[in-house]
Amino acid sequence: MTTAVPAPSAGASSGAPSGRAARTQSPFWRNMRKFADNRLALASGVVVVLFVVMAVAAPLIAPHDPNATDLFRRLQPPAWMAGGEWAYPLGCDALGRDILSRIIYGARISIFIGTAVILVATTIGILAGLAAGYLRGWVDTAISRVVDILLAFPYLIFAIGLMAMMGPGLSNIVIALAYKEWVIPCRVVRGETLAAREMEYVEAARALGAGRARIMWREILPNILSPVVVVSTIRMANVIILEASLSFLGLGVQPPTASWGSMVADGRAFMLEAWWVSTFPGLAILLLVLSLNVASQGLRDAFDPKFHD
């Protein structure tokens, strides 16, 4: 007497797992689940996204023109204080400009400069780090000496010197900050490349006749991107602080363009009588930088194997 064997169901077939299951099992999505489990890091990431949305949608959500002056509202206090009104919830500055609108538009400057500097610096750092780590020899020596020289200069002093030579302006800030920022991803990529070039998959590609460019771009780079992304996210907070510092010193974005650093500088003379002029832009810098740092630490903990259980 034979026993009937039930046919395997369609979902239990021996084929490849479904797209959703494969995505869930991939290292990237496993690490993203680890990041989502960190509630503080996830909340910080949400705050960063809200800042980005605020910057992109600034013309739609800003209650007033950020550059419109009204001397009758000079140093008007926030809405909850005597003399304030809810049409200007955070008050006005010395020229009667709405502080909330200027903070919203100032987010555009900080996020744009931070993103632009990190993209430029990371691209240069990846190219230089791959070349130094894989080619070795005189290429590694030349790039490493340039990195050592740039690291010897204090970042802010170096940026101030470049801005003094080039003059203030949005593009000059990006150039001045990216000029030194690329050394950080370069060192990370070089170290990761030195380890990856001895791995079996690189040896196999080399044995199959793959050229050096193909090995660097197709074999090594995809496997070292995670630490590069994490480091770039961490460094973006530092770039935003540097931009605010340059604007505070008058070397950044020039008036009347709203910039958080210049807004803090504008309120220095009124700290005792109109504390809100400097305090609210300073709080915006603090909140964005703190959120970026916490979110980037969460990304590091999720993607770096050294921090896994």
Characterization of the model:
By secondary structure, this protein is mainly alpha-helical. The chain is 68% helix and 0% strand. It has helices at residues 19-25, 27-37, 39-56, 58-61, 99-135, 137-151, 155-166, 170-181, 183-196, 200-207, 212-248, 260-266, 276-303. It is elongated. The model is unreliable at 7-18 (pLDDT under 50).
Keywords:
309 residues, 13 helices, 68% helix, 0% strand, elongated
Concise structural overview:
By secondary structure, this protein is mostly helical.
Mean pLDDT: 84
List the total number of helices: 13
Beta-strand residue fraction = under 5%
Order of helices and strands: HHHHHHHHHHHHH
Helix content: 55-70%
Question: Helix/strand-derived class?
Answer: mainly alpha
Largest sheet: none
Count the strands?
Answer: 0
What distance separates the N and C termini? 53 Å
If you compute it from the alpha carbons, what radius of gyration comes out, rounded to the nearest whole angstrom?
25 Å
How would you sum up the global shape? Answer: elongated
Low-confidence stretches: 7-18
